[in-house]
Write a structure and sequence with these properties.
Blueprint (H helix, E strand, L loop, with lengths): L1 H29 L8 E2 L3 E3 L2 E3 L10 E2 L2 H7 E3 L17 E7 L3 E14 L3 E19 L2 E7 L6 E6 L4
Parallel strand pairs: 8-10
Antiparallel strand pairs: 1-7, 2-9, 3-5, 4-6, 6-9, 7-8
């Protein structure tokens, strides 16, 4: 009788422990981690555009309409097979623009990634500054084109720095 009671008690304890363990697993599985809630968003870099002289620096990096875009940027076609400006269909796409102040230093802007956290898009870019002074001034820009299905109200620009 004692053996049966001990076996039943151990079995009951094992059953309770396994049920509790399963419930804990389910609870932790439903808690989204910060890393999995951020998704990469595809985009293409727009090439062969320039920032117009006298245009006001954009307050918002997201550009939704062709009229707004053309008030800020002009086309800079060059000769060759890939010399035409990147086509942008504002019915299906929008633009995220990084525009830096005019400088007499050579600045190269490189895109890093575009992510969506469910609330806003974050565009990370890297700027490389050359120490040599140029004989002219330039206004560095970086434009990316994003499909409207990924559109969010808020767009954040974030410069990333190399270590």
């Amino acid at each position: 009788m004692k053996k049966t009671l001990i076996v039943l008690s151990c079995g009951l304890l094992l059953l309770l422990a396994s049920c509790n363990g399963q419930r804990m697993e389910k609870e932790t599985a439903t808690i989204p981690s910060e890393q999995t809630s951020v998704k990469k968003v595809p985009y293409i870099e727009a090439e062969h555009y320039f920032f117009r002289n006298g245009a006001q620096m954009p307050e918002n990096p997201k550009i939704n309409t062709r009229e707004e875009f053309e008030s800020l940027f002009g086309m800079a076609a060059v000769m060759g097979t890939n010399g035409r400006p990147t086509p942008i269909d504002f019915d299906k796409q929008f633009v995220i623009a990084v525009v830096l102040p005019v400088t007499n230093k050579d600045v190269e802007l490189d895109d890093e990634r575009l992510t969506d956290d469910g609330q806003s898009l974050t565009f990370e870019y890297h700027a490389s500054y050359d120490e040599d002074v140029l004989s002219f001034e330039m206004q560095p820009i970086l434009l990316i084109v994003v499909d409207r299905k990924f559109e969010r109200e808020n767009v954040v620009l974030k410069e990333v720095f190399e270590d």
